[in-house]
Specification:
Distance between the termini of chain A: 72 Å
Pfam family, one (chains A, B): MgtE
Subunit structure (chains A, B): Homodimer.
CATH superfamily of the largest domain in chain A: SLC41 divalent cation transporters, integral membrane domain
Oligomer: homodimer
Largest interface: A-B, 120 and 121 residues
Radius of gyration of chain A: 30 Å
Strand content of chain A: 5-15%
Largest sheet of chain A: 3 strands, mixed
Strand order of the largest sheet of chain A: 1-2-3
GO molecular function, one term (chains A, B): magnesium ion transmembrane transporter activity
CATH topology of the largest domain in chain A: Tetracycline Repressor, domain 2
Function (chains A, B): Acts as a magnesium transporter.
Shape of chain A: elongated
GO cellular component, one term (chains A, B): plasma membrane
Order of helices and strands of chain A: HHHHHHHHHHHEHEEHHEHEEHHHHHHHH
CATH architecture of the largest domain in chain A: Orthogonal Bundle
């Protein structure tokens, strides 16, 4: 598996399509066996419905459950639909619990019940419990497939237990240690277990300092802890410190990517739009409009406010329409430097770099940056507007307005996310429309005030 | 370790400061032992220089090396400086190779040589080899601390080897299998090794399908593979398939966060600004100005182009200055919807969701979204501008211009990143300034053309 993965994918898809067309089930089965379940799922998703059915029926039970872990809930239901009842039970019970819960969370109540009824009793009970937790909390992303041993058994016993039960567990890189009331009291790496003397007691070799999270810990905080402490899994405990589940690092990676996407979308003034390959274009468009329109309408009122501002200076505009020429330039440059400042600030807050004393330092820094880049830009703008329009007085006004505007914009872009953070509003969500509107209005006010004062004095 | 981590940090810092002030070395040492190295490093970084020295000298060798892995290169050199030579060697040899290489890469040639000369011969040689690779490739982020066994030994022998050598290796969750020319031929999980019969041969139980990357594979591609296949580590091979190193999932998390930050910054028109807590404010400001100014200057030329466009319609403006009132509204709304479209497209490309047939579908989708949100916004804009200005003809022009503008902006916002991707330019880096300028100019042209045609016909 190297860089040419996209090319490889097309090749594989072609091979599968050919073998399906020629009904070469045995050859196809052999071919699939060499592939990773994630690749098999990718191929499956690109086949049409009949081929999907045929292809899925060729998979072994083990493969089928691994593949189901990788698909979206719609494909999941349609694939499950083509199985016989006893097959369903076998395949579903093999699936990883956290992936199963994610899929079920997207289904209707009825569909969900139907699928849970197919699971074995213990698994069904656990899945039901997991479905209770909020999707973006530790409880919502954890799995109950973990290994825990009692603190009072020996290393030898622990290894024997592991041999018997490890098949089930999603990760056995950490062995969690509990007391006789299931409370989390320690942790061991599998390696430490293996290199220890067989007759030692677990409690004598375990680490007592365990980094854990609560059921309701936000998934972003969970990700932060896993990243900070370089963990492969993190245990989840309830309020009595009872071990309830674990979250593995592969799910943490998903959380990190999800949160980054969310932040990026919020900057652009759109909430996350969830759609899959299978969705119809019309429902994708509907979802997109629904998440984007509110932001656009909010900013439109901001735009109308700027119209009001300009309107109040219409007399000046009437005297010298050239003033209008540089309005987009000034508003645009203010917007650009403001976006830079707010992006750096919002990301800095999200990454935990701006707190305590750093807040004042950040403000001072952004003000200074606005001062410097504003100075450079205003000189260039004044010179170029002189070339474009040939009006010295206007060029001076444009230059000064640009400078004042950029300093203000950088300061507003920094201040707004900081204030929002302080009053408990998500800085990412609120900053983009609020900042662009504020900057537009202050920028235009600065420009027109300067125009009125300076141009009146010196020329008009 | 729960949610109150920020509060906890302040408490810990205070405890450490108090103990340092009272010179209670023994108590301090006991206190530190309960903490994770990442927490110890965090505390260390917040102390002033003298306290840092004192604090660091209290750490055990093992702790000192774990802490050094967590600090930046500046702190690293200053802390190393306070150690005696034999201490240096001991502590440096304990450090994880990939972290050490990251630190060394930021130092001067001279400093780097000095530190490498303190390492034991084998480690020094390996570190020198790692320093050759580009920082953002697999070679640049891999470690040579891995476990590999020959395919022709038994499970028993392999476990014995592991017991002896595992102390060194950064991860022993996967055991890589090589042939007698060091070529990667298979992989085993530690768990599989333990549950296998001791007299079996490794080659009979290993998986032959190993997902690996080359030395020069881009780190973003490495992250994509690790995320896709849910790996805890990925092996790195040279062109002859010889096993050269591994990359562990904790480093992959760093890569994912780094790349997300980079993308977010590029959107805002600024390259990544790397600075640490220790940097002086002046150097932070300098770094920030340097990375932001080029983008601002580029967009300024765009702003002057819009001035040119408005200038060519100055006659229309002279007749009716009210036209100027709605320029910021129109330009702003075009910019907003364009940013939404370009953000969704750029992120879609980065996440691998837009390829092949999806390209056309995405374009069609964004065009439709522009059409629909544009329709809603243009009706609202027309009505509100009527309220604000009371000019029916102008309101109609504003409405139509808004609609046309938003459809165009959504299409441009989608098309530009797609085209940039096709011609091999990073969509994230080039889109923001290019798109905002293009949209400003097309938006104003649409507005003025419509104004000239419609207002002339019906009113003026």
């Amino acid at each position: 598996m190297t860089l040419q993965s996209e090319r490889k994918f097309e090749d594989r898809l072609q091979v599968v399509k050919d073998l399906l067309a020629r009904n070469e089930d045995v050859a196809l089965n052999e071919y699939i066996q060499q592939l990773h379940p994630a690749d098999v799922a990718e191929i499956l998703l690109k086949l049409d419905y009949e081929d999907q059915e045929k292809f899925f029926s060729i998979l072994s039970w083990e493969q089928a459950s691994r593949v189901l872990e990788e698909v979206d809930s719609e494909t999941f239901t349609s694939l499950i639909g083509i199985l016989k009842k006893e097959q369903k039970t076998l395949i579903l019970d093999q699936m990883s619990q956290d992936d199963m819960v994610d899929l079920l969370a997207d289904l209707s109540e009825e569909k969900r019940k139907e699928i849970i009824s197919l699971l074995d009793l213990e698994n069904a009970q656990e899945v039901r419990e997991l479905l209770v937790y909020q999707e973006d909390t530790a409880g919502g992303i954890m799995t109950k497939d973990f290994i825990a041993v009692r603190k009072d058994i020996t290393v030898y016993q622990a290894i024997e237990d592991l041999r018997e039960s490890a098949g089930d567990a999603e990760t056995v890189y950490y062995v969690y240690v509990v007391d006789n009331e299931e409370r989390l009291v320690g942790v061991l790496s599998l390696r430490e277990l293996i290199v220890s003397k067989p007759n030692k007691l677990i409690e004598d070799i375990m680490h007592e300092q365990v980094i854990s999270v609560n059921l309701d810990t936000d998934q972003e905080e969970v990700a932060r802890l896993v990243a900070k402490y370089d963990l492969l899994a993190i245990p989840v405990v309830d309020k009595d410190n009872k071990l309830m589940g674990i979250i593995t690092v592969d799910d943490i990676i998903d959380v990190i990517e999800e949160e980054a996407t969310e932040d990026i979308y919020k900057f652009a003034g759109t909430s996350e739009i969830e759609y899959t390959d299978e969705d119809k274009l019309s429902s994708r468009i509907y979802a997109s409009v629904k998440s984007r329109l509110p932001w656009l309408i909010i900013t439109m009122f901001g735009g109308l406010l700027s119209a009001k501002v300009i309107g109040s200076y219409e007399a000046a505009l009437n005297k010298n329409t050239s003033i209008a020429l540089f309005m987009p330039l000034l508003a645009g440059m203010g917007g650009n430097v403001g976006t830079q400042s707010s992006t750096l600030t919002v990301r800095g807050i999200a990454m935990g770099n701006i707190k305590g004393k750093e807040v004042l330092k950040t403000l001072l820094q952004e003000f200074s940056v606005g001062f410097l880049v504003g100075l450079v830009c205003s000189i260039i703008a004044a010179l170029l507007s002189l070339v474009v329009q040939g009006d010295i007085a206007l060029s001076i006004v444009v230059g000064i307005a640009m400078w004042a505007n950029m300093i203000t914009a950088a300061s507003i872009g920094t201040l707004v996310p900081l204030v929002f953070k302080r009053i408990g509003v998500d800085p990412a969500v609120a900053s983009a429309p609020f900042i662009s509107t504020t900057i537009d209005i202050t920028g235009l006010s600065i420009y027109f005030t300067l125009t009125t004062i300076l141009l009146n004095k010196f020329i008009l």
